[in-house]
């Protein structure tokens, strides 16, 4: 393993500089790192600099780290040059298994010994990508969300041959670099968030294909509905509030039977005692001491904040003027 601590990292290499690689470059520059990028496309440098330029006003509004500058970006002529003195490498090449496998093998051969190399893959397990690398122990998944310079989440997970130290190092590094990290205990294709997004996405495609809903109706159903809550409260706690004062336990007693109704093409799991208890206990844990009344108040304020932030709060609703100074 590298002797550089996550806190001491100054130089980051980004390999593949499209939508996500470019977004990572913007994020790391805004956090004050020196960034070296490499991408084989002939127009890659111009594209990358345009992306960083376009992101910079938003990043400036958010607040740049001391010393952060677009001048800290170097575009290397070769992959080897890009990673030669990197202290962390983020790979964001196209989502093709063979390509990732070969690229990670080359990166492993070229990067300084022990330096952690992360892949932005949206769903490949690292076990499938690390098969030909000489030092697979340092290869991890660091899955971001678009755009990586604004969406905090990174899902970190290793493969069967990744060391626990590399996973812990990467998780800590992302935290130091300003990300929200979920370190997964085991490899699941699609990780956590993309499995959830994909379930929704597949159902949406089925509904369009079958003429059950239009594209506009699908988008409105989320942006005018559950999406307003998900910005600040996840689907578990949100549904716990559907159980009123009885919380998740009552929600499951009341609506559990509808799992057997054909509400989705995804097969429902058996709502047995283990699953029931795990969900109820998980909600209690997530509530972290907040009562149902606290959560309801939090949710209501959150929805108002999101409506206001997105310019959708009516000045007057149902003939009542918005009370001054209360929202
Ligand atoms: N687009 C998205 O919303 C998200 C994508 N990802 C993941 O990020 C990775 C990159 O995806 P995008 O940025 O969307 O793709 P993209 O197509 O925008 O960019 C890919 C870049 O890789 C370059 N490239 C091609 N061959 C390469 C090679 N052998 N070595 C290095 N670079 C190479 C291309 O020139 C291009 O600039 C994929 O693994 C994808 O699954 C992860 C999260 C979100
Ligand atoms: C579309 N996508 C599967 C590449 C999306 C992601 O991986 C994450 C995101 O940004 O939603």
Automatic annotation (TrEMBL):
One cellular component term (GO) for this entry is: cytoplasm
GO MF terms listed in the record are:
carnitine 3-dehydrogenase activity; NAD+ binding
What's the source species for this entry? Streptomyces alboflavus
One Gene Ontology term from the biological process aspect of the record: carnitine metabolic process
Can you say what this protein is called? L-carnitine dehydrogenase
Summarize the protein's role: Catalyzes the NAD(+)-dependent oxidation of L-carnitine to 3-dehydrocarnitine.
Q: What positions does the domain 3-hydroxyacyl-CoA dehydrogenase C-terminal occupy? A: 190-265
Keywords associated with the record: Cytoplasm, NAD, Oxidoreductase
- The primary location reported for this protein is cytoplasm
